[in-house]
Amino acid sequence: MEHSPIALSALTPGFADPVHDTQAVFRTLLDALSRPGTIGVIHDVLPALRNTPVEPAAFAALLTLCDYATPVWLAQPDTALASALRFHTGAPLVEAPGAAAFAYVHDADAWPPLESFAPGSDESPEQSATLLIRVDALSGGTPVTLSGPGIRGTETISPVGLPARFWQERAMLAPLFPCGIDCYLVCGLRVIGLPRTTEAKVN
């Protein structure tokens, strides 16, 4: 896939302190995935985002998790975000969701079926896709009850802006365990982790 030259004057800045900020964001992301349903807050470690509508939490996560060996798929064309990822991480951008290790979905209208993403294999379940999904809000929508590892009893979330079929498609992947797809719901600087081990029931 060919890329046009990066215009440095219009480039979205990355972390001010890459080592410290990457470690802090990684801890937040790990905690969110290990305690599904709880809201993690990524502290404002990025300069003001410009030229791109990407959620700060998603951009920080991509800067933290991606490198030259992690292909990324963007559900919506975003030249500024693509340039920033290429410059700051070296991550290759792919044209098909099935080729991605990480994916960012900014708009539910552009949501592909979850089966489009790589679930890993029995030998290498870790070679699956991780999705960063922008939602309009992390509360105020239809309640969803979560259960499974990392949850004491149950946890209830109510995100706004997910396509109605998300939970159905996610449940269809459950029999593939240990394969599957891990997700983060992002809104502003906040994030909720949804690992493949979490069972979700729409109330």
UniProtKB/TrEMBL annotation:
<dbReference type="GO" id="GO:0016829">
    <property type="term" value="F:lyase activity"/>
</dbReference>
<keyword id="KW-0456">Lyase</keyword>
<dbReference type="InterPro" id="IPR008772">
    <property type="entry name" value="Phosphonate_metab_PhnH"/>
</dbReference>
<dbReference type="Pfam" id="PF05845">
    <property type="entry name" value="PhnH"/>
</dbReference>
<dbReference type="InterPro" id="IPR038058">
    <property type="entry name" value="PhnH-like_sp"/>
</dbReference>
<protein>
    <submittedName>
        <fullName>Phosphonate C-P lyase system protein PhnH</fullName>
    </submittedName>
</protein>
